[in-house]
Model the fold of this input.
Amino acid sequence: MSPERKKELGREMQTETTARVDLWVLTVALYKMSLTSSEDIGRWDRHAASFASHELEGDRFVIGVTDQYAADYYASLYSEPLRVALIQAGAQPDIKVEFSVTEKAKEIEREKREKEEVIKRAQPEDIQHVKRTSFASTVPLNPNYTFDNFVKGPSNSFAYAIASAIAKEPGGNTNNPFFVWGGAGLGKTHLMQAIGHYVMQRDPSKSVCYITSETFLNEYLNAISNNDGDSFRKRYRNIDLLLLDDVQFIGGKRQFQEEFFNTYNNLMTYGKQVVMTCDVPPKRLNNIEERLITRFQQGIVIEIESPSYETRLAILKSKAKNCRHRIPEEIFTFIGENIKSSVRAMEGALNLIGKFMDANPGMEINSQIARVLLKEHIEEEVTIRRLSIDEIVKAVCSTYSVTYAEILSNTRTQPLATARQVAMFLARKLTGNSLPTVASEFKRNHTTVLHGSQVIQKRIDVEPELKKTIELITEQLGRKPSELFY
Ligand code: ADP
Ligand code: MG
Done:
């Protein structure tokens, strides 16, 4: 989101409908809207949960935390973006954000620790022991990602059925490995962790490991640099259920793939279950050894698709159960109709509505207010609207007066070569498709596509005419030129 759009949004929210919205609520809402990856959002939520207080003291906005280390760390991450968001939310322009150790924060931390102690004491020693040893993950499971909280619909019912079969009988032959793929925010991680919860609950002695492939790779690199490859190997060969999230990130990491190949084979040999998620199906994985891809296809490969309108409504209603307010039917319909790209985006919209209702008790919420609050979400949806590569190629053909077949041909004369590269550039920028997909549509290998779009990227800087042409095509396609140059 551009600073101008954010500012505009902040102003609208302030003046039109939400004059009474709490400054912090609005600031957080604006800040969170600027986060695009689920990792960033998850990190913020985890961190923000430990902020004990927030207070406006003159020109200082003070956030209370429990210790100096946390204060310094959070300040380095959040002081600046929160300052910007505060100003957009209506704070004075010279506002400063500080993270400080406050008495209140310490008090809250003490209470939390005492509560944990009580719970711990209530558990017999042996259960504690079993729990400690059974869980091999570096990353804990999200307590909400259970089967009970997963809403089934035509887009995910097959994946759900397989996941629950695996949960009941991990390591069975038919569904091993289980490879789930699909777009961002469609429930892959949720479903995968649901298997983990179920298995651990049923048999706490089972060793369940949830890890993203990025973390997995980092652990491996650390182990190698500490000359401790052996204990890394042992650790990952002694688990019963490996949940490897976002496997696409191992692309290109040859040495790690070798190690993973061995770990993987070992787990399979001993009848352990492997579940993987990915943003593409195995055959479209980029820079991953063929033998790994073959292995990934040996069990069951299933796509989770975007949910239908009915499923979207059911998911919204299920999520709203955690909300303290009664959300009117009109709002569900509004979100269901306007936010379609991912469940994560729908959840974000619902959270914003919840925050608005928190901040404005007694105020009737309707779709008009929702439209203002969710303006940014809705705009993003329009941007996400999937343009097909086909549409792009056709638009380029008509601008350059060339044919579709010529674009796909190997002829390198001008202006055909430029037209082809422009089409590649736009396909990369505007469709959100991965490089291998774009490459296969153009019947080229991916280095050619990468090269082609890089050439255009460079030429745009020095050839205003070319830049104008490309912007025009982009507008014809119903998209904003600003999307090309971020
Ligand atoms: P992915 O891993 O595919 O990017 P996630 O599993 O992180 O997506 O899901 C994003 C958010 O949407 C999570 O909060 C998850 O609980 C929620 N979600 C996705 N699909 C469903 C569903 N079918 N039912 C309930 N919640 C869902
Ligand atoms: Mg995920």
User: Anything to note?
Assistant: The mean pLDDT is 85. The radius of gyration is 25 Å.
